[in-house]
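Saturday, quiet lab. Running sequence design on the structure tokens for the scaffold JK sent over.
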């Protein structure tokens, strides 16, 4: 049964301006520059430069070229983009005598293309070449064939109509195993290392021992049960050390060995804040080097004022033009206000972090870092925790001791036996120092590390030590053992 009713509800909704502010607050400096450029392309009323009252008038009086520039891009150019005549889009300013030279651009080959090139150097039947090409297409960036041959047999039958079996695919895969770099096409780490060690001189005693260890005792080797391997293969400690040294020279990810400088993508971090230490005085500034200043176009402001005056005098202005200019001017003002608010919020939050961690920022000593969570900064700045989180996300600060993400300075706290609050980062640093200085023949267990930290005054359980050790990407004691 359908029923209509009238209800009143009180809802909280974000305005478009608030949504725009939130999105601008999240992005780092390098993306802000791109966002501003895109906004300037879409909004003709937004200009780059300082907002000076008399700048527009003086430029019109002293420079006729600026007026010509205004004539080139009129309001109609933005309103009727879809109906532009072809002569405005085509350039025909070339002479028959002009000399055209095409400069070839060399683009490097990808990892898969390199393997296909090596495939072309082998004498194979058409069927073998098709199977090999399909197998190469399934090799990942690390150089592994992680899909089972049984699944690939089904794929070939359904997608390409080729009936084959695992035996035939294994024979074709053996051909790929001969490609460079060594280890390509391996189905697991053991096979990858064995393919590489087989390329070496197996008549050498060290190479032979390494081959036998990887082939027959890989499980014990991966778990670092060296005593069992020594007993079963009747090796000395020196023989075992040489074999371990030989394994460390192998590449567990052979696909990464293929590096083409033309395909490399360099990641560059542009800091959002710059912190300088001048004789013990910290000076914080926003990195606005590539972020242009914005202003409202006087040309369009005057145009809107003219439309308004004409309306008051009884004249009928172009309604569409008036609406277009007003909408773009309002959008430009909102965007400039959002940028200013973003900069103020960033500085407010970073100054609070700087004040809270002042001792740490003076010399960069992690031991002096205080425990700090988002709530602490939110209370100081009177901002919402979600706002502080957006500021800390994807933002970096350049200090006199390195470039760090803002998230780096947030850590949980823990009390010592004396009741003092210390940062978990300080405990992790001590944990790293203990493990780096341990005897490698008898590495410290999590239980022993917990006892050492408790002796230093840090009340920490064994499971907490294990959690911090995993966060530091440090393996368990058994895997840290060396001969």
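Result came back. Writing it out in full:
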């Amino acid at each position: 049964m359908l029923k209509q009713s009238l209800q009143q509800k009180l809802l909280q909704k974000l305005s478009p301006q608030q949504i725009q502010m939130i999105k601008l607050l999240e992005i780092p400096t390098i993306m802000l520059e791109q966002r501003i450029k895109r906004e300037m392309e879409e909004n003709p009323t937004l200009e780059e430069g300082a907002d000076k009252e008399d700048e527009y008038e003086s430029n019109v009086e002293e420079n006729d070229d600026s007026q010509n520039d205004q004539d080139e891009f009129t309001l109609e150019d933005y309103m009727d983009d879809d109906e532009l005549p072809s002569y405005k889009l085509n350039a025909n300013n070339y002479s028959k005598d002009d000399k055209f030279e095409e400069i070839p651009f060399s683009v490097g080959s990808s990892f898969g293309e390199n393997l296909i090139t090596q495939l072309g150097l082998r004498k194979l039947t058409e069927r073998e070449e098709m199977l090999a090409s399909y197998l190469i297409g399934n090799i990942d960036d690390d150089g592994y064939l992680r899909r089972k041959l049984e699944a690939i047999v089904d794929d070939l039958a359904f997608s390409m109509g080729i009936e084959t079996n695992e035996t035939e695919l294994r024979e074709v895969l053996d051909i790929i195993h001969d490609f460079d770099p060594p280890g390509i096409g391996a189905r697991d780490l053991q096979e990858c290392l064995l393919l590489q060690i087989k390329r070496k001189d197996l008549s050498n005693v060290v190479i032979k021992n390494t081959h036998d260890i990887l082939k027959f005792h890989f499980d014990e080797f991966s778990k670092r049960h060296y005593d069992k391997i020594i007993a079963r293969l009747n090796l000395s400690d020196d023989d075992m050390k040489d074999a371990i040294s030989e394994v460390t020279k192998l590449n567990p990810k052979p696909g990464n060995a293929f590096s083409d400088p033309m395909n490399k993508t360099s990641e560059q971090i542009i800091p959002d804040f710059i912190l300088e230490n001048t004789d013990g005085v910290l000076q914080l500034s926003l990195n606005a080097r590539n972020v242009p200043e914005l202003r409202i176009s006087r040309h369009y402001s005057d145009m809107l004022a003219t439309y308004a005056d004409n309306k008051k005098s009884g004249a009928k202005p172009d309604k569409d033009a008036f609406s277009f200019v007003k909408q773009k001017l309002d959008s430009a003002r909102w965007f400039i206000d959002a940028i200013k608010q973003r900069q103020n919020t960033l500085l407010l939050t970073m100054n609070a972090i700087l004040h809270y961690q002042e001792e740490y920022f003076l010399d960069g000593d992690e031991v002096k870092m205080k425990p700090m969570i988002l709530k602490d900064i939110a209370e100081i700045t009177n901002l919402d925790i979600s706002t502080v989180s957006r500021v800390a996300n994807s933002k970096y600060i350049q200090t006199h001791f390195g470039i760090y993400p803002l998230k780096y300075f947030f850590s949980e706290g823990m009390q010592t036996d004396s009741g003092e609050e210390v940062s978990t980062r300080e405990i992790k640093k001590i944990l790293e120092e203990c493990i780096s200085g341990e005897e490698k023949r008898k590495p410290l267990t999590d239980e022993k590390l917990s006892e050492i930290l408790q002796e230093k005054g840090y009340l920490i359980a064994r499971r907490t030590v294990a959690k911090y050790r995993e966060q530091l990407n440090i393996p368990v004691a058994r895997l840290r053992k060396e001969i």
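Notes for JK: Residues 54-63, 65-73, 78-84 have pLDDT under 50 and may be disordered. Strands lie at 46-48, 273-278, 281-286, 294-296, 396-399, 402-405, 413-415, 421-423. Ask whether to fix the surface positions before the next round.
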